[in-house]
Fold this protein.
Amino acid sequence: MDLGIAGKWALVCGASKGLGLGCAQALVQEGVNVLLVARGAQALQASASKLIADYAHSTRASVQFCAQDITTETGRTAVFAMRSDFDIVVTNAGGPPPGDFRDWDREAWIKAVDANMLTPIALIKATVDAMAERGFGRIINITSSSVKAPIDVLGLSNGARSGLTGFVAGVARSGLAARGVTINNLLPGVFDTDRIKTMLEANSKKTGQSVEALAHTRRQGIPAKRFGTPEEFGAICAFLCSVQAGYINGQNVLADGGAYPGTY
């Protein structure tokens, strides 16, 4: 299927690895020009070089990168100094650390809200009107399955991401869709990324169980009996960015292998 987005420009955040890189890869495969953003310059440059070598030459897509912290005003200014207009924006920031809510002070909460709620809102604000003027725009916010099924040790994430979800529910229905702009949230369950490895290692130290045993237990709780891959997550993202997905708007698209037990 031709997704109809070749030649468009995409801003992909958290794109040096994991789910962000999976989204960038899928878009480049579709001929989308991408500006990759992440904090780690070395990893980001390596990922950009690999995308160019593996896909960009054949699809004629441009791959640029900007090593900045997108959760800061300084970082966003640097990114938009490189390019101000985008047809596609994929917001993505590392999730807050797990823990007990009794241990989180105001600073921890502000940091979580700033990264996982206010930063996506700032990126939407900076890009959405120009998208509407051009008659096409796709904004995908990578959030978490915890928005639908909260995880007790991820209270910072539950709170901040739920705030973003509420905001998107309103702004996506504010008349933008009639001008060709859609905003959706993509909710990952357990994917084979550094974040799940870090969480498993932390749980291993806490419980004394091996990482392998804990991973096996997690897989058994997923109907698919496996963790997702960044590549298949990226493919979902690319479809939501397509011209064919123009009637999907204001939705929370859950990709979790069937782990969420609810009917709705």
